[in-house]
Amino acid sequence: MPVYAFYQVDAFATRAFEGNQACVMPMEAFLPDEQLLKIAAENNVAETAYLVPQAEGVWALRWFTPAVEVPLCGHATLASAHVLFEAGGYAGDVIHFDTVHSGRLSVQRLADGQLEMDFPSAPIRPVPVTEDIVAALGARPLEAWGGMFYAARFDSPETVMGLAPDVRALKGLGAEGDGWDRGNFGCFALGGEGVDATSRFFAPGSGIDEDPATGSWHTMLSRILGTHFGLPEAACRQAYPGRGARIGVRLEGERVKLTGWAVTVIEGQFRL
After folding, report:
1. Which end of the chain is more exposed for a tag (fewer CB within 10 A), N or C?
2. Which domain holds residue 43?
């Protein structure tokens, strides 16, 4: 019976029950995709990350939701680096991850213990706010952008926190002409409790009604804040009910730095 080390991590969190849950499973080689998807469905958290060593300080990395493989996932990357630093005994200050769709990603351990991820930040463009999207969200955005996801800006953090969208309707919606954004909506407002922006992320298109803390969404949010609101460096809060997360973002050209903490909450074995 094959046995794999298993870690469940709360990412973008300073203690248990905050941030977003990710499972991390180191392997000597990737299992067939069908098996990886079944394991992710069994784990039943937002993402499961699979790690395969490539060279000193370099791992191949893939991410699966319970429904699909995704091309970029921030919180599970943070969780993966946390596991390698804390449980894997990696003594360096920087870990490199080679990914299929997002190239090489790097994670640096900072002096205060936070982890800083270096991610790509895809282009964005203004898109219409259509009536079907207004109806599905249950509130009218002030403006919207397309790119990796559909990003909708609202008038206040209170409006964002009060959203109760029809996720079935959202699943088939998005910005026309974009790639994997359909059914994935980042909703934000400027300001909030001690932060520059407050957001929530609804992702029925990726098999998740609402995600508690989403690094990939914050790469897009960082570009919006930096290019449209004069905030190249910002403190952000993702206001998932009952959990919540704080994520630091810093736009640097075509890249963005995402900063946060992580904690391991479960450690064990996965038996196939």
Report:
1. N
2. 3-121+259-271
